């Protein structure tokens, strides 16, 4: 899907296309961003690539607070991107919202 700019945000798709408990990676400004639809219906977004070995975070298990990389089980906070393990680094966290049924992301163009 082609992204569309909305103000400073980018529409990446319909919220209805991302069921509760699902996540998906979207390309925004030449970056991969993982969007998570939590069990409470809210949305969260992080960089889609684990800094450890490039694992696909959108494929990881997640809850209201964290996502776990499917490759080596490092957990990253959805609020701040920090890893719970030392030495792994963190991931970027991005503003995301449901705007009139569309997923809108705000991502800096530079990684």
UniProtKB/TrEMBL annotation:
GO MF entry, a single one: monooxygenase activity
Domain Rieske: residue ranges: 10-105
Family matches, as Pfam families: Rieske
Domain of life, per lineage: Bacteria
Keywords: 2Fe-2S, Iron, Iron-sulfur, Metal-binding
Coiled coil regions, renumbered to chain: none
This protein's name: 2Fe-2S ferredoxin
Source organism: Gordonia lacunae
């Amino acid at each position: 899907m082609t992204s569309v700019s909305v103000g400073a945000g980018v529409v990446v798709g319909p919220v209805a296309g991302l069921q509760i408990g699902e996540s998906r990676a979207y390309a925004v400004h030449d970056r991969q961003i993982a969007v998570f639809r939590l069990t409470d219906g809210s949305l969260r977004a992080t960089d889609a690539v684990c800094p450890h070995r490039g694992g696909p975070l959108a494929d990881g298990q997640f809850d209201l607070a964290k996502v776990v990389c499917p490759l080596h089980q490092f957990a990253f906070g959805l609020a701040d991107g920090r890893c719970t393990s030392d030495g792994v680094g963190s991931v970027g966290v991005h503003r995301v919202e449901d705007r009139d049924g569309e997923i809108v992301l705000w991502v800096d163009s530079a990684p």
